Amino acid sequence: MGDVLLTFDGAIATITNNNSDAHNAFDDAMDAQLFAAFAELRGRPDVRAIIWRGEGKSFSSGRDVSSIGNYQGDLSHHELMRRGHRGIQQVWDIDAPIIVAHKGWTMGGSWQRAMLCDIRIAAEGARFRLPELTYGVIPDTGGMGALFQIAGHGLVSELILTGRVMQVEEALTHGIISRIVAPDALDATALEIAEQIVAMPAVSVKMARSIIRNLAVPQLRTSMAEEMIAQTFISRSDDMTELRAARAEDRPPHFTGS
After folding, report:
1. Phi, psi of 167 (to 5 degrees)
2. Is position 19 within any domain?
3. Who has the most CB within 10 Å: 22, 52, 66, 174?
């Protein structure tokens, strides 16, 4: 059993974040399992709808914070980001729409990944946050572009530049999610939506989703390419060096903007 599970029930597939002890925080191993699941789904024309959910209290608290800005592997920063972008951009090559079921915390890269999918619903009490700037980095998984498309300049600026928490009711008002349900009805509601999609003519679903994707995806690809350049620069910047030193020395950082 892995930390990301892929199961099938007829024409409906379910991806489950299964690291509940850590609120489904993602590490490199979970990334690899998630991207492998997407790769398998790309080759499954029999799958007509996909549910993406989390086991336990949260959909996902984002990236394991110990790894943010501290990657120690063999890949260059640019190669690491390319791997992540290629992995998540597979959602645009899957014929089946993806329904994301939010609960508890959805943060950081996991929220950004969810915003690249088709339909998002949430349980009462769900919370959302993009805390990347508090770690000295920026959102780099398409979240800035997706949130801009959904909610506009003002909101994306506030959420990213302050890192504040967004409650589920506010997310609904901005169209970030399409409905709020009781926590014990979340999985059943996601399944109901999936069954409604499966009942539609398959070719019509594909064509409608293709048109919607063509409206959104070109701008998101451009945004993600810019994120890659900016994040690579940040990783080598004087400010990032100062942030790491200040934390190691337990002192306030002195940023110069370079």
Report:
1. -80, 160
2. yes
3. 52
Q: What is the pLDDT of residue 160?
A: 97
- If one counts the domains in the chain, the total is 1
Provide CB contacts within 8 A for 73, sequence distance 6+.
Answer: 28, 80
Domain assignment present for 8: yes
Quote the crossing angle between the two packed helices 108-115 and 143-151, to the nearest 10°. Answer: 60
Question: Domain span at residue 103?
Answer: 4-184
Distance between CA atoms of residues 186 and 184, nearest Å: 6
SS (H, E, C) 39-96: HHHHCCCCCCEEEEEECCCCCECCECHHHCCCCCCCCCHHHHHHHHHHHHHHHHHCCC
Alpha-carbon dihedral angle through residues 174, 144, 18, 184, given to the nearest 10 degrees: 0
The answer to whether position 67 is within a domain reads: yes
| Paired sense of beta strands 4-9 and 12-17, if any | antiparallel
Q: Which residues contact 182 (CB under 8 A, 6 or more apart)?
A: 123, 124
Half-sphere exposure of 95 (CA within 13 A, CB side): 18
3-state secondary structure of 237: coil
**Contact partners, residue 134, CB within 8 Å, separation at least 6:** 163
In the beta sheet, which residues pair with residue 104?
none
**Regions of the chain short of the pLDDT cut 50:** 69
d(CA 242, CA 157): 25
pLDDT in tens, 7-30: 999 999 999 999 999 999 999 899
